[in-house]
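sry for the spam today, last one i promise. C-alpha cells for design, 529 residues
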C-alpha cells in the first residue's frame, strides 16, 4: 500500500502553485488597472462616442456592412457617413471583441505619427499581411529595424536623383506610343501602372521591365509582373472570387492569411526568384568594380547598386527593393489615374493647365521648370486631397497612452488608449471636412491652393497628409510628385485635347492604394498638323 503523504504533498504543491499564479495575475491586473486609472485622471480623459452595433458582442453586423460597402466600392464614404451620423470627429468602434479608436482629428493623427511616435507600432495585422511579399523592410518593421532601413534608403532620394527627369523620357515615349491617336477609348489607369512599374524597375534594378515598349515580349518579365500583381491582390484579399479567397479574405486581407493558398506560395517564389537573380548579378558587378574599377565604371545611378554597396545580405536587399517597388509603382500610378480622371471631367481645369504647359513652347520640362508650374502643383495637391492614395491608416498602441482630443460632449478632452488598441484615421474623411476646407470641400478646386485675387491659398499642416507625416513621412514623396508632374506635362504636350469616356462618377477601388474603379477611360487627341 502506497503511503498517502506523497499524494497529499503533490496536491498541496499544485494548490500552492495555482494560488500563486492566481495571486500574481490578480496583482498584475490590479496594478495595471490602478495605473490606467491614474493615467486617465491625470490627463482628465473622458469617454468618446461609440458606434452602436446591433450585435454588441462580435459586431457581426458591422462586419457585414463593411463587407457590403467594400464590394459596392463605397467603404470610404461609409466611414465618413458614420462620423456624419454621430456628428463627431472621433469615435469608438467594436469588432470581434476588440475596440478601436477612429478619428479625423489632425491633432490626434499628429500625436500618433509624431509627438507620441514611440508609443505606437504598425501593428501585428499589417505585418502579417505584407511580410510574405515584402519581407523585413521599411514598410513592415518598427523600432531599430525600421530606422536601419530608413537610414539605408534615405541617401537614395537626394536632390540629384529626384531632379534627374531625363530618366522618365524613354518610358514616357513608350507610354505615348501606347495611346491610340484616333480618338478611340483608352484606359489610362492600366497604362499608368505599366509606366510606373517600368520607371520603378529602371531606377531600382537598373533593368526596366519595359512592359510598355513596342513589341514587348519577355517571358521572364511577364511571369514576374503577373506574379507580383497576383501576390499584391492575394495579400490584400481583394480582386478575387469567393471560391478563390473565401468570404473572410475578401473582408480583410490579413484574415485571409489563415486560409490555405498554394498559388500564393508559388507566385511568391516567382517574385523572389526574379529579384534574387538581379541581386546576385548586382553583387557580381560590385565585386568586379572593386577588382577592376577601370573596366567597370559606374555609368548611372541605380538603386540596387547602392544597396549592394552597403550590405551583402541578399534577403535584406530583396526586401527593401520590393518595399520601394510597391511605393514606386502603386502610389504614383494611383495618383496619376486620379489626376487624369479629374482633368478629363473638368474642361475648365484642363484649359488653365494647358496654358501653363503651353508656356514651355514644346520644350521638355526640366526639374526647375516643373517646380515653377504652380497650377500643376495645385492640381496634384487637390487630387491628393480628394483622392488620397492611402486614404486610411492605423497604428497599434504599444503602451497605455492618451490622444489629445475627442473625449467628452464637446470632444475637446483627451482620450485614453490602452495598450494593444488600434487608432485608425480616415484621411478621406479628414480631407473633406468643411470646417477645414470650406463648404466646397467635396469639390475639385485647384484654385484653393493658389495665392490669387488678393487671397492667400491653403496653408496646411496635419489636416493634409497625402504622404503620411512624422518620422515615417514618405521619403519618396518628391520623386513621386516629380514623376507625376513630368508625365502630365508631356502627355498634355502630345495630346492637347481630352474627352472623358468614363460613364460613371469617380468610385473607389481599394487595394493597398486607392484609385478609380472605372480605370480612367478617356480619348486623347493629338495636335493637328
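last one done:
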Amino acid at each position: 500500500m502506497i503511503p498517502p503523504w506523497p499524494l497529499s504533498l503533490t496536491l498541496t504543491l499544485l494548490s500552492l502553485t495555482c494560488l500563486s499564479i492566481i495571486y500574481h495575475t490578480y496583482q498584475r491586473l490590479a496594478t495595471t488597472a490602478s495605473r490606467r486609472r491614474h493615467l486617465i485622471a491625470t490627463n482628465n480623459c473622458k469617454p468618446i462616442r461609440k458606434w452602436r452595433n446591433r450585435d454588441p458582442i462580435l459586431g457581426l453586423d458591422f462586419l457585414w456592412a463593411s463587407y457590403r460597402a467594400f464590394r459596392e466600392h463605397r467603404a470610404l464614404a461609409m466611414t465618413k457617413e458614420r462620423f456624419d451620423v454621430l456628428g463627431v470627429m472621433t469615435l469608438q468602434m467594436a469588432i470581434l471583441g476588440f475596440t478601436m479608436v477612429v478619428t479625423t482629428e489632425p491633432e490626434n493623427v499628429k500625436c500618433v505619427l509624431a509627438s507620441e511616435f514611440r508609443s505606437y507600432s504598425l501593428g501585428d495585422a499589417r505585418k502579417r499581411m505584407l511580410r510574405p511579399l515584402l519581407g523585413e523592410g521599411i514598410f513592415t518593421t518598427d523600432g531599430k529595424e525600421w530606422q536601419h532601413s530608413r537610414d539605408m534608403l534615405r541617401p537614395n532620394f537626394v536632390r540629384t536623383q529626384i531632379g534627374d527627369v531625363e530618366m522618365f523620357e524613354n518610358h514616357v515615349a513608350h507610354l505615348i506610343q501606347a495611346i491610340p491617336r484616333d480618338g478611340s477609348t483608352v484606359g489610362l489607369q492600366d497604362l499608368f501602372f505599366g509606366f510606373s512599374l517600368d520607371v520603378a524597375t529602371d531606377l531600382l534594378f537598373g533593368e526596366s521591365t519595359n512592359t510598355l515598349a513596342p513589341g514587348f515580349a519577355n517571358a521572364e518579365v511577364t511571369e514576374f509582373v503577373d506574379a507580383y500583381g497576383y501576390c499584391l491582390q492575394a495579400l490584400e484579399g481583394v480582386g478575387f472570387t469567393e471560391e478563390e479567397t473565401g468570404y473572410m479574405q475578401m473582408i480583410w486581407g490579413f484574415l485571409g492569411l489563415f486560409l490555405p493558398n498554394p498559388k500564393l506560395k508559388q507566385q511568391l517564389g516567382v517574385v523572389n526568384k526574379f529579384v534574387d537573380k538581379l541581386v546576385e548579378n548586382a553583387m557580381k558587378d560590385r565585386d568586379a568594380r572593386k577588382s577592376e574599377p577601370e573596366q567597370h565604371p559606374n555609368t548611372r545611378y541605380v538603386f540596387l547598386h547602392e544597396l549592394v554597396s552597403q550590405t551583402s545580405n541578399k534577403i535584406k536587399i530583396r526586401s527593401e527593393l520590393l518595399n520601394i517597388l510597391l511605393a514606386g509603382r502603386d502610389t504614383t500610378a494611383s495618383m496619376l489615374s486620379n489626376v487624369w480622371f479629374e482633368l478629363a471631367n473638368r474642361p475648365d481645369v484642363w484649359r488653365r493647365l494647358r496654358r501653363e504647359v503651353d508656356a514651355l513652347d514644346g520644350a521638355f520640362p526640366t526639374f526647375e521648370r516643373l517646380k515653377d508650374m504652380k497650377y500643376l502643383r495645385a492640381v496634384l495637391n487637390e487630387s491628393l486631397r480628394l483622392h488620397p492614395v492611402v486614404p486610411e491608416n492605423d497604428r497599434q498602441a504599444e503602451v497605455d497612452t492618451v490622444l489629445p482630443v475627442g473625449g467628452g460632449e464637446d470632444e475637446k478632452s483627451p482620450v485614453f488608449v490602452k495598450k494593444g488598441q488600434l487608432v485608425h484615421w480616415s484621411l478621406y474623411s479628414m480631407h473633406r471636412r468643411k470646417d477645414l476646407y470650406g463648404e466646397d470641400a467635396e469639390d475639385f478646386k485647384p484654385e484653393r491652393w493658389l495665392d490669387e485675387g488678393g487671397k492667400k491659398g491653403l496653408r496646411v499642416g496635419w489636416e493634409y497628409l497625402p504622404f503620411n507625416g512624422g518620422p515615417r513621412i514618405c521619403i519618396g514623396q518628391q520623386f513621386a510628385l516629380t514623376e507625376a508632374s513630368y508625365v502630365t506635362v508631356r502627355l498634355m504636350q502630345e495630346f492637347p485635347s481630352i474627352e472623358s469616356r468614363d460613364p460613371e462618377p469617380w468610385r473607389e477601388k481599394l487595394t493597398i492604394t486607392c484609385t478609380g474603379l472605372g480605370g480612367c477611360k478617356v480619348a486623347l487627341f493629338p495636335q493637328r498638323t
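The longest strand covers residues 401-407. ok im logging off now
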